[in-house]
Amino acid sequence: MGVQLFKAKYEVEECLSEIRECLEVGWTGMGFKTVEFEEAWRQYTGLPYAHYLNSSTMGLYMAVDILKNEYGWQDGDEVITTPITFISTNHAIAKSNLKAVFADVDETFCLNPESVKEHITEKTRAVMYVGLGGNVGNYDEIVKICKENNLAFILDAAHMAGTRYKGKIPGREADVVIYSFQAVKNLPTADSGMICFKDGKLDEIVRKKAWLGINKDTYARTQNMGNYKWKYDVEYVGEKGHGNSVMASIGLVQLKYLDRDNAYRRTLCQWYRERLSAYPDKIKLVKIENGCESACHLFQILVEDRDSLIVALNQAGISPGVHYIANTDYKMYSYAKGTCQFADYVSKHTISLPLNLYMTFEDVEVICDEIVKFIVNK
Ligand SMILES: *Cc1c(COP(=O)(O)O)cnc(C)c1O
Fold this sequence. Notes:
Layout: H1 12-25, H2 33-45, E1 51-53, H3 56-71, E2 78-81, H4 87-95, E3 99-102, H5 113-118, E4 124-130, H6 139-148, E5 152-156, E6 164-165, E7 176-180, E8 193-197, H7 200-209, E9 214-215, H8 217-223, E10 233-234, H9 245-256, H10 258-276, E11 284-285, E12 292-293, E13 299-302, H11 306-315, H12 341-349, E14 350-353, H13 361-377
Parallel strand pairs: 2-3, 2-4, 4-5, 5-7
Antiparallel strand pairs: 1-8, 6-12, 7-8, 9-10, 11-13, 13-14
Helix pairs in contact: 1-9, 2-9, 3-4, 3-7, 10-13
Bound molecules: pyridoxal-5'-phosphate.
């Protein structure tokens, strides 16, 4: 079948027995395993709060919506963001009637702190930061800029499950961190995500807003017993956004193996780097900051003729990908087309090489052979 870009590897028997438990007790919904998974995630990350959702897209939408309402942002206020991301990141800003203001990326493929500074205006309220490929980029500098300018810091950590920076899981510095456990991410469940607010009051709000605004505690609390579960108040027009126990079952199992799996991803990336760094004129590697132990969600390189390389690799049975086309090239965000020079360069020249846990050293060798053959013949 050749070598695929992504292919999730599950602890099948363990996942099935965890799911079996849900089926046997007759509860697959919110609660039960979702609560266990939230607790396990808090333990793992050291973040104070975690609410389990049905996707990270939902998490991004809720994050921006809740910060806007609670911090008193107005329609048309600005959030500085990156063009090199999956579209959910920027839709979350637009969905809340805020303006996505695109700053450029640097050789880490994450936001360039200088460009972020240049885009700050009277109306800037937040920075939306994506740790692309699991890398932290210039994280500390972005945190500093947010503090100095009194901006909220939203961390789209969709690629960062398991990333460490200076020995710790990054995120305590952020107002909110959003993880994805979608089918191809480092901690795959099929579909789900986690939203981690710094402030417990906002965590309480997201628990209501992700369940249609229902405050299920109102009567249970005032009556001081569980008999009034059917009586609740509705405080918001919320979403149906919470996660379920079947997905959480998979998440609980996969979390146990996340560090082991990420370590193997780093090994694969190291093999790629060792081989491909021999061609610095033809192949540019993403810069990894000192102190970043990346989750290695992606292995990206830059080459001159990216599109032809993809065709050549496809012909050899290898399926690479592209992360990402600059979002400013899309109609929705074309008001900023051409404003981010390096992002546009990345958009045209980046290729994500296969990176999955089924791969061996030989697979990496075969892929590198094809790439070298391609660039030498050019
Ligand atoms: C996958 C991804 C998302 C969306 O995650 P879902 O869980 O599929 O909603 C958001 N941002 C980035 C950077 C992603 O890669």
